[in-house]
Amino acid sequence: MRAAEFPDKPTTSEVGSSGITFGSVGRLQQQEYLPDLIGPAAYRIYERMRRSDPKIVGLRRALDLPILRAHWDIVPSEDDNPRAEEIADFVEENLFNHIDLPWPQMLAEILLYQDFGFAPFEKVWEIEDGKVYLKRLGYLPPHTVQEIYVVDRKVKSIDQFSNSKGLVNIPGDKLVWFVNRKEGDNYRGIPMLRSFYRPWFNKERAEILLLVMAERMGGWLKFITPDGATPADVSAAKQIGNDFRINETMYMVLPPRWDATVESSTGMTLADLQGFIRYCDEQIDAAALAQVLDLGTSSEGSRALGRTLGEIFDESVQSTGDYICDIVNAEGGLIEELIAYNFPDWEEYIPKLTVGKVEKMDLKNWALGFQALANAGVKFGGKTHAWIREEAGLPEEEEMDEKATDEMLNPPKPPAPVIAPAVPGQPGVKKGPYVPPGEGDSNPTKGDVQEQPED
């Protein structure tokens, strides 16, 4: 078979494009097809959704809280290397303590990229005692970003308009950019709230109908007027029907020989509307891989299903934390720029931002798992022990010598139970001291159990 033939050198220029930018400046085009969700109007709708809908508010908190409470750390590039630890400690002090905003609050702003599709931050630096520090990551709300310019697949700059500074152009190298479901050069991403929009839109209208039906007792008012009713009588009846509502002061005064009844709807009922609203809520959860939050709202489901859906939800949340680390740790990213300003040999000792497991630890299952590993002969060192305590949220361990720590992490296996031979002259099989091979009357193999029949 003939080997494939290739040119001596590959073509280094890019011929195609993502097709969503235009002009030499690379202005990014809108990718949304619904007019209501294009431009500033979209962010007004998204704000309504995330502020007023209890389901969306609760779901977003369920997605964010594990990230906010997770253990974040700066890990040195090498263990037991003083220089690597020095650089890592500098980065940790800057990001977690020296910066203007507390780390949890900055994380909360970063997580807004999921709501709106993207979240740009401006790097603001300061110099103190000859050291360059990151003073803040200034959040730039997406609704203030007028234009995004993309060149060579990277954000070259943005136009931002604010009431305080008017229209300004911010270079891309001053930005840290978080984007949700980025496709090609679409640095606006796809908002998570966009996936919620259709069920939210339908639910909002169903809730209005539900209130109307509740106010009118699930039906409408029917009048029976006597023969000879005048047009004025008919007009008065229409007005009474239009004003009919359920409230604490409701009453009705009818002329003689008039009658009024509430006719129930033969179509959709209050229960039907409530079921449809629950369906919309389930669709919102499904869009966020959070179906586990629906368990318990119906008679369906099982323990195994709940465990599976919970694992999917945990993996989804974990991927969010890992993505934030990837952006901060990226080549030429925030951490590399910070240490490049302060350490000449930074390329040899680049630390990394890490996030711990976000799911709640099942201590019982963990203990059983580690016990099984220990019984199988797996040895655990001090670092593993420290990691277990950290993941489980246990307090720091007191000082222990190396021998005591090893005995705690790797306890000796208990001896196997042994049944001794029966004592001569007594009926039955009796327990007694273990007789090693070569001693006594008959011990063909070490550990064999000797039994004597009853007299």
What does this structure look like?
With 455 residues, the chain is α+β, with helices and mostly antiparallel strands. Among the domains are: 195-309, no CATH class; 361-412, no CATH class. Helix content is 40%, strand content 16%. The chain has helices at residues 40-52, 54-69, 82-98, 103-110, 112-116, 192-215, 231-243, 270-287, 303-329, 334-340, 363-375, 382-392, 402-409, and strands at residues 21-22, 27-28, 72-75, 118-128, 131-139, 145-151, 154-162, 166-171, 175-179, 219-224, 259-264, 352-355. The strands form 5 sheets. The protein has a 3-stranded antiparallel beta sheet with strand order 5-4-9. The chain has a 3-stranded antiparallel beta sheet with strand order 6-7-8, with no helix packed on it. Strand 7 (154-162) and strand 8 (166-171) form a beta hairpin. Helix 2 (54-69) crosses helix 9 (303-329). The model is unreliable at 445-453 (pLDDT under 50).
Beginning-to-end CA distance, first to last residue? 85 Å
Output the helix-strand order.
Answer: EEHHEHHHEEEEEEHEHEHHHEHHH
What number is the mean pLDDT?
Answer: 81
List the uncertain runs.
445-453
Percentage of residues in helical conformation? 25-40%
Shape: extended
Q: How much strand?
A: 15-25%
Tally of extended strands? 12
